[in-house]
């Protein structure tokens, strides 16, 4: 039959990254295309014990229906953790456990985006969340991202003229750029949002993975009037396959958020929530601390290799945390031919255009992930990319 | 701040059942309000072993990112199972693993319902799915449900005048009524859908739990032109907390469905998918077979107690499967005062109005679940409800 699809899905796109990652499974490929933690870092012994024990001894709680708000002990321990680490205030705010950061984006769009509404995003930004916003009919507008956060003049102009549903930002170690919004810009963004009465959706899946530099308060921690939504995830610090994330918002929104969650999948996996809770009670902070030297070492290997092998006209910033370095070809160049040629040489990277509001326009960025490949693969892959940069830039 | 919510959520409602179930946790309560399998039936030893083994020995597959289509071995074993048991044809169709039956309803609405579109449902129908449809702006219209399926004249009239996005039906052991659509009506529904070019969304979470009577082919098994979407779930046969369900649809829809799933939560829990796969490979059919005498015995206890204790003007049908009996007060009476008084006497039931398109209108149904309470609780609770029926009906 001729299907009559909902128009909200017209703009929905698949993830080019997930397609690239299918290539990454081929033998001999070096992949800088991913965005996941190292499987060797998963706390598997601990998880196996928790799972076995929970299923055997708490079958009803583990395998029966859970509540939509989230596993209550995890809700409590996570609030305590975020109060301590991010200075969030749970006298004003509530927290909902969701199935990963992706569901946070989906639910926020479902709750706040009418079809045709404007949504502002950093340009570039995380393609998964942009796709979630698009799938509710959002018209995205990108605000140029600088190495210390978005361009404030462009943000203010968009606030003033566009009446956006919200401004979406990844404040720390952004995906794809690796950039962190400075403390000054965070304060300015919150003030502008207040002045123009716009909501901010602050996503922070990488903030805990800081191995250098000083911690910066989140925009949510500055929130005095409930205009900031804040999401986080255990996907980067524990394991992505658990699909456990969380959304923090003003209490006034709790009923609507709960109803929305109930309607999409009733509740998230209780077993994985139990694992997150057990870790938060004992061992989570030590586990995160144990990740930092791993990723710092890899970031340093990649930075040194880029320094040594890349053509001098390729720019990048040494990361202080997170999973990514964005390498920039000279202004005006499109990175797609570079990325395609690199795949032929068996190195996978992601073109910057994949992370922009209009992926058909050329973009000079190349996203490089350093969390998944080994130090040896990083060395080897960057040599190949460096050689290619010299061939292409002469 | 004053929040500007998306209008699609205006009609979204919380589940009265989930609120009632909070009461059910109070000591001394007898609950006929639930709709879940007996926790004692969960295959916990088996699951504990699978979980421990998968996390320890297949950490990357279990805890790393999975693919949006579902865990490939489960997709294969489930196709084989549905080919055998439901005669579905996977040369024409594809299958997507989703997070429970609820996500099937959410995704179908997201893909096919434009705001303001008409969606037809059996009246009464499952409130969780109706809420999912409402949350995308669907205008629901109920088609009166008879004990052998919907009234065909009413269905045809609605098909002819309403151009609905789809007709949603629970073909076997329907929730809340316990009714099964007859083979003749299934054929007629498919023919009408073809004649008026309407899609059918057939939900079948209870069909495997038949302990009496002959199996009836699904509407999906009659589908020749891809107009039937079919969803199922492991929530009733294995454990609801796993949140593993599946959607079957014509291959032409696969790309859109995958993209939609990717956008809502990337993928469903791989660990629980592994458990479903391991069961399907070995033990699932025996496990389901072992459930049948359990639930049949309880259904018989409830039927006998209703027969013995209820006022003669209360009607109900002896079930051949599933989890529910719907008891009907005399036509024109509202069951809400009955349900409220029963709660005071510490017996929880759900009023029929909760399952209708307009819950503010009186309805004479009372949904009684027999899968969760013990035989003793069923006896004791029905005595109380019977006493109340005599007080109310004289």
Query: Mean pLDDT across all residues of chain A, rounded?
Result: 95
Overall radius of gyration of chain A: 21 Å
SSE-based structural type of chain A: alpha/beta
Q: In the CATH hierarchy, what is the class of the largest domain in chain A?
A: Alpha Beta
Question: Unreliable stretches of chain A, pLDDT < 50, 5 or more residues?
Answer: none
In order across it, which strands form the biggest sheet of chain A?
A: 2-9-8-7-6-3-4-5
- Please identify, by name, the CATH architecture of the largest domain in chain A: 3-Layer(aba) Sandwich
Q: What is the number of E strands of chain A?
A: 13
> Multimeric state of these chains?
homodimer
Could you characterize what this model shows?
- 2 copies of one chain form a homodimer.
- Chain A is built from 13 helices and 13 strands.
- Chain A has 394 residues and is of the alpha/beta class.
- The first copy, chain A, has helices spanning 16-24, 44-57, 59-63, 72-86, 100-112, 127-134, 152-162, 183-195, 254-265, 270-281, 284-309, 336-344, 375-393; strands at residues 30-31, 93-98, 118-123, 139-146, 149-150, 166-170, 199-203, 228-233, 245-250, 324-328, 347-348, 350-351, 365-369.
- In chain A, helix 6 (127-134) links the parallel strand 3 (118-123) and strand 4.
- In chain A, helix 4 crosses helix 10 (270-281), helix 7 runs parallel beside helix 8 (183-195) and helix 11 packs parallel to helix 13 (375-393).
- The termini of chain A are far apart.
- The first copy, chain A, is globular, with a radius of gyration of 21 Å.
- Chain A has an 8-stranded mixed sheet with strand order 2-9-8-7-6-3-4-5, sandwiched between helices. A 3-stranded antiparallel sheet of chain A has the order 10-13-12.
- The first copy, chain A, folds into 2 domains: 7-43 and 292-393, Aspartate Aminotransferase, domain 1 (Alpha-Beta Complex); 44-284, 3-Layer(aba) Sandwich (Aspartate Aminotransferase, domain 2).
- Chains A and B meet through helix 2, helix 3, helix 5, helix 6 and helix 9 of A and helix 2, helix 3, helix 5, helix 6 and helix 9 of B.
């Amino acid at each position: 039959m001729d299907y009559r699809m909902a128009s909200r899905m017209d703009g929905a796109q698949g993830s080019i990254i997930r397609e690239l990652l299918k290539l990454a499974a081929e033998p001999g490929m070096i992949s800088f295309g991913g965005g996941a933690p190292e499987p060797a870092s998963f706390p598997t012994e601990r998880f196996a014990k928790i799972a076995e024990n929970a299923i055997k001894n708490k079958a009803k709680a583990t395998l029966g229906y859970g509540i939509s708000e989230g596993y209550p002990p995890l809700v409590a321990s996570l609030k305590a953790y975020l109060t301590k680490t991010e200075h969030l205030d749970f006298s004003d705010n509530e927290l909902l456990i969701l199935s990963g950061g992706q569901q946070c984006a989906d639910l926020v769009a479902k709750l706040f985006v009418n079809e045709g509404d404007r949504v502002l995003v950093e340009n570039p930004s995380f393609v998964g969340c942009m796709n979630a916003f698009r799938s509710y009919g959002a018209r995205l507008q990108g605000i140029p991202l600088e190495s210390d956060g978005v361009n404030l003049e462009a943000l203010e102009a968009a606030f003033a003229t566009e009446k956006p549903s919200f401004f979406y930002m990844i404040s720390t170690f952004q995906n794809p750029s690796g950039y962190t919004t400075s403390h000054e810009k965070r304060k300015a963004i919150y003030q502008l949002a207040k002045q123009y009465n716009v909501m901010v959706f602050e996503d922070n899946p990488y903030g805990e993975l800081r191995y250098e530099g000083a911690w910066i308060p989140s925009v949510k921690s500055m929130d005095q009037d409930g205009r900031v939504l804040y999401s986080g995830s255990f996907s980067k610090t524990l394991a992505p396959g658990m699909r456990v994330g969380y959304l923090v918002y003003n209490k006034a929104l709790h009923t609507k958020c709960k109803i929305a969650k109930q309607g999409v999948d009733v509740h998230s996996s209780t077993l994985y929530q139990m694992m997150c809770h057990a870790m938060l009670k004992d061992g989570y902070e030590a586990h995160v601390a144990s990740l930092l030297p791993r990723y710092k070492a890899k970031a340093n290997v990649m930075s040194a290799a880029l320094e040594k092998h890349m053509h001098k006209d390729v720019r990048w910033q040494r990361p202080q945390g997170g999973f990514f370095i964005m390498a920039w070809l000279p202004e005006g160049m499109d990175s797609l031919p570079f990325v395609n040629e690199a795949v032929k040489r068996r190195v996978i990277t992601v073109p910057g255009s994949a992370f922009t509001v209009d992926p058909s326009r050329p973009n000079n960025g190349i996203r490089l992930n350093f969390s998944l490949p080994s130090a040896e693969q990083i060395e080897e892959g960057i040599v190949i990319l460096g050689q290619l940069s010299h061939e292409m830039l002469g």
